[in-house]
What we know:
This protein has about 110 residues and is an all-beta fold. The protein has no helices and 10 strands. A hairpin with a 4-residue loop joins strand 7 and strand 8.
Amino acid sequence: QVQFAESGGGSVQAGGSLRLSCVVTGSTFDKPIAWYRQAPEKQREWVVSIGSGGYTYYSDSAKGRFTISRDNAKNTVFLEMNSLKPEDTAVYYCNGAGWAAPWGQGTQVAVSS
């Protein structure tokens, strides 16, 4: 069964940066992967995706600030987040893009103004 393990979250001030990691186990690492986030009292939302060949798709909120990448040799997807804003505060999850597996525990990102 596919499992996701997110890490790298933390508390930063507005304008700061974080790099999140997502290790995918239990499956051949050749599928599209996405990052999602869920802010307090809000629904989980899609943030950014990367295809098996590296093609990327960004939400409007992520464009120009976030960068997704993948290391297929390490079954890992990364999310580099720059110029963070308080509205980026959320629990960040990775999961399939166009397919789904059980959600991991996520990693908390807190951005203070």
